[in-house]
User: What shape does this take?
Amino acid sequence: MNLFLYELALAWHRLRRRRLHSAIMLGTFAFSIGLSLFSYSLFHAIFIKNPTFDPEGNLCLIEQVAPGHGDVWQTASPFEVRTWTEQQAVFSEFAPAVLYRSIFLGTPDRTERVLGANLSSGVLRMLGARPLHGRLFTAEEDKQGTAPVILLSHRTWQTRFGGDLTILGRQLLIDAKPATVVGIMPPEFRFPNDQEVWLSLGFNWAWGTSEEAVFDVVARLKPGQTHARAAADLEQINRRISSEVAAARQGLQPIVMPFRHYYLQDQLRTSALVLFGLSLIFVLMSSANIANLVMIDFIETGSELGVKAALGISAWSMVRHIVLRIFLLTLLSAMLGLLIAVILTPAFYQMLPASNLPFWLHFEMEWHLIYVALGLALTATAVATVGPAGFILLTKPETLIANTLTGARHTGHFTWKRAILIGQMALLTILGIISGLLVCSNYNLGHIELGFNPDNILTLRCGMRVIDYPTQAARRAAWQRSCEALRQLPGVTQAVCVREAPMHRGVLTLYYATQRDGLAEGRSEGSANQFLVTNAFFDLLRIPLIAGEGFRPDEPAEGPNYAVITRGLAEKLWPGKSALGRSFFVRVGTNLRTAPQELIVKGVAADFRSGPAMGNRHDAVFTSILKSEAMFYDLLVRGEQAPPSLEAVRETMRQTEPKIPLYFPNTYRGMLQDQLKMVELTSLLTLVYAVAAGLLCLVGVYSVTVSQLLQQKREYGIRLALGGPPFNLWLRFAGSYVANAVVGVAVGAGLASLCGPMLAALLYNVGQNDAAIFAIISLGIIGLSALACLPSLVRLLRIDPASCLRSL
Amino acid sequence: MSNSPLIALDAVTKVFLTDEVETHALSGIHLDIHKGEYVAIAGPSGCGKSTLLSILGLLDTPTDGTYLLNGRPVQSLALAERARIRNREIGFIFQSFNLIGDLTVFENVELPLTYRGMPAAERKQRAQAALEQVGMGHRAKHLPSQLSGGQQQRVAVARALAGSPAVLLADEPTGNLDSKNGEAVMNLLADLHRGGATIVMVTHDTRFARHAARSVHLFDGRVVEENAFTKAAESSL
Ligand SMILES: Nc1ncnc2c1ncn2[C@@H]1O[C@H](COP(=O)(O)OP(=O)(O)OP(=O)(O)O)[C@@H](O)[C@H]1O
Ligand SMILES: [Mg+2]
Assistant: This one.
C-alpha cells in the first residue's frame, strides 16, 4: 500500500511536470465524457426511459395506415375497435380514446378554446390514474348517449376556477353542451400532454355519425409479446372483417408502437441515435489520446521498469499500478465530465421549444449517469493501458533489466501507435463528415429563401362553432366581414384568412396525380402542401403570381374547382409545358375515403417556403377558401410599418364578430422563429460536435507526434549530432505522420459513405455523399494534423544532442 | 604542416545553470590543435572533458570565448549552419556507440552522407570503403544489435570516417569495451592517425593516452598540464 501511495505521488508529480500536456488530455477527455453523458441522457430519455404514465414501458398506441401512405395515421372506427377488443389475443388491456380534441370550454365569464381528450375508463385504468378529488369515469360512461361527464386538470381547476371544490358536480359548457364535472386530477396527471379537460368516451355527440373512425387505441402488451406480432395479429383480424367495412377502409394495416414513440418524431429519434453514436466515437478517440499520454509517460520512465524488475517487483503488480494510476486519471476527468453534463444538459433542454417535445422529456440528474461515467472511465482505462500492460506482461524481467542497463528503448510500439493514429484519424473523419453534413443540412434548413415577406404581420388563430355559424355561407360571410373591418383599421394594409399560414406546423397535406386513377388504392405521384386562400393572401405575403390569375372574390361555391400552384409543382406535373388550363387530381388531407378531386390550374405562383420548418416539401397547391368547409383558420393582418396592435385587432373583432374566439397571438416573424428554433438548436449541437472533433484531431496528432519524438529522442539526438538539418529532419518526421493521417482519412471517408443511408433521412439539400463536404472535411483534417505536428518541431529543436549522446 | 591551427580555442568558458546553481564546467580554456595531430584529453571525472569535446564538435556553444575552426569563428553560428559544419568537418565517436538501432550497419554509416545530399552511388561507395577500412565490410547488412560491442564501435568509427571529416572527436571510445576490444579500437585510431587524420580523444586511461602524440590534462575546467610524448613528438615533426 505504501508503494501504491508512492506511485501515486510519483504520478502526480509527473502530471504536474507536463502540466500543459496533462491539462489538454484531461480537458479533452472530460469534455468528451460531458458530451457523451449529455447525448446519453437524451438517448436514454428517448429510447429507454419510460414515460411517467407507463412505468413498465408496455403501453402501446394503435393506429392504422393505408398501404403506400405510411406517414399518415388513420384512427379506428367503433366497429373495428369492437372487433379487435373481442378477437385480439396479444394485449392484456385494450381501450379506445380520442387523444386530441380542441374544445370550447365555457366558464361563467367567457368561452375559450382549450386542449382536451376523450378517455375511456379502460385507458384511465391502464394509466393508473387516481383522482385528486371526486371520481374517474365509469365503464357505463364509455357508452354513447350517456350523460356527458368531464375531469378537470389540476392547472385548469386552479387557474380557471380558483381551486374551488364546489365545482365538483357543477355543469360547464363543453362545445356549448352542458357537462358535469365529476373529478379533478392531480398535478402530475398529464395525458397525453397538457390537456385541460378530459371528456368521457360516451361524450361524442359532436362527431357526426356513430360509425365515424375517430378512435386511437391504447393497449397493454401481454408479457412476451412483441409489437410486430401484435400488429400481425390485428392485421389478421382486419382481413377477416374486410367484407364488413367500407371500401376505403379495406386493406388498412394496423401499426402498434410503444406509446413513447407517439411523442417523438422519427427525426428526433434518429438525431438522438446519431448524436449518441457520435459521442461514443468521441470517447474512443479521447481514450486513444489518453493512451498516448500513457505511452509518453511509459517511454519517459521506461528505465524505471527495469529498476523495479531488478528490485523484485512482479510484473502483475507493475501492471496493477499502471492501471490504477490511469484509472484515477480517467476517473478524475469523468467526474469533471459529469459536472459539465449536469450543468449544460438542463440548459440545453431549456433551449428546446417546449411545443416540440413531450412533457415527460426533461433532464434529471439520475444515478445511472454516474455509472455511465464510471463505465466510460473504465473503458478509457482499458484502451489506454492495454499497450503498456501487454508489454510488461509479455517481456521477461531479465529483458526489462537489460533494457535499462543498455538504454535500449521499446521500439516495438511504433506500428502499434501508428495503427492507433490511423484508426483515430478514420474515426475523426467519420465524425467530421457526419457533423459536416448535418451542419450543412441545418444551415440549408435555416437559410431557405422564404419567398414571402413575413414582416409587420400579426397572426392569430381563430375558430367558429357550428352552433354560432351553422352553414358554410354564414361562416364565409363572417370572416369576410372581419377581414373587411380589419382592413379599415388605420395602419393596416391587408388582412386575410388562410388555412394554414405557410410554415405552420399544421400545414395541410394533399396527394396529387395527373390522372384520376393515379390516386387509386392510396397511390399518388407526390405530395404538396395545401392552402385555402383568397386572392388577398398573395398580396399580403407578397408572393407574386407569375402566370394566369388568382381567385375571384365572388368565386361561386359550386362549379369547377380552380387551383393556383407553385412553379416547382407545375414543372413536376407538366415538365416544360404551360400549366394553365390543365387539370390534375388530388386527394385532400389524409382520409382515403374522400374521392379524388379534379383541380383546374388557373394560375402559377412563385415558389416559396411553405412546409414546416424541419420538412423539405415546399410545393404548394392553393384552392379557394370560399369553397371550403373550414371552421378554423389563421388570421393574418399586415401593418404598414409594424405589426398592428393586438388590442386594436381584438377590439375590431369584438365589434364585428364577437362570437369568434381568437387565440395564439404572435407576429409572423415570431411564429417562424419558434419553428426554426429546433433547426437552430440541432445546428448548434452539430457544430459543437464538429468543433470538438477538430479539437480532438489536433490533440490526438499532437500527442502522438510528441510522444513519438520523445521515444525517438536518442535517435534524433544522434542524427542531429551527425549534422542532420533540423528542419529537414522534422519535415520527414511530420511527413510520415501526415501520410498516416491521409491513410486514416481515406479509410474514414470510405466508412462515412457507408453510414450514408442512415443519414439520408436527416439531410436537407445535401447529398449523403456530398463530394465537396467529403473533400473539405478530409483536407481540413489532413491540414489540422499537419498543424498539430508543429509542436513536435519545437520539441525537436529543443533536443540537446550532447546530453542525448552522453546519457545511456 | 601549416602554421595556422585547425582548431583554436581562446578563453573558452562554459557555465551550466541548473536550478540556480552555476557549474563552471570550463573556465578560460586556451587550446590550439593542428591538422594531423592526435591529442588526448585526460583528467578526473567531472573536470569538463566531455563538455570540451561537445564544444569542439559544435554540439554546444561556449558561454564565453572564441572558437576558430579552420580560421573561421564558429562559436555563435545559427543552428542549421552548425549542423552543416558538424556534418562536413567533424566525425564523432562516443563511448556508447550511438548507432541507430533500426538502421543496418551500412545505413548507419551512410546516414551522415545523406544529409550532404551526396549522390547515392558515391555515398554507397564511400560507406563501403569506410566499412572495409575498419574491417566490417562483411557485416554491412547486420543490425547493430547483432554485433558485439567492439564491432559496434568499429562501425561508429566507420560512420565518423565516411564523410572524410577535418577532425575525429572521440569521447572515451573504449569505455564500454573490454581491454582486448579496446586495444583493437585504439590501434584502429592509431592507424587512422598515421594515415593523416586529426584526432581528439577523451580518455582517463593513461595506457591509451600514450597512443596520442600530445595529451592535455584538465582539472576543474582548466588546462593544468600539457605534455608531448617523445615518440609522438618525433612523428609530428
Ligand atoms: N547539461 C549540463 N547541465 C548542467 N551541468 C552539466 C551539464 N553537462 C555537464 N555538466 C557539469 O559540468 C561538469 C563537467 O562535466 P563533463 O561531462 O564535461 O565531465 P567529464 O570530464 O566528461 O566527466 P567524466 O569523466 O565523468 O565523463 C560536471 O560538473 C557536470 O556536472
Ligand atoms: Mg565525460
Observations:
- Chain A touches chain B at residues 407-409, 411, 714-715, 718-728, 797, 800-802, 805-806, 808 (CB under 8 Å).
- Residues B 49-50 surround magnesium ion (ligand 2) (CB under 6 Å).
- Chain A has a mean pLDDT of 82.
- The longest strand of chain A covers residues 91-106.
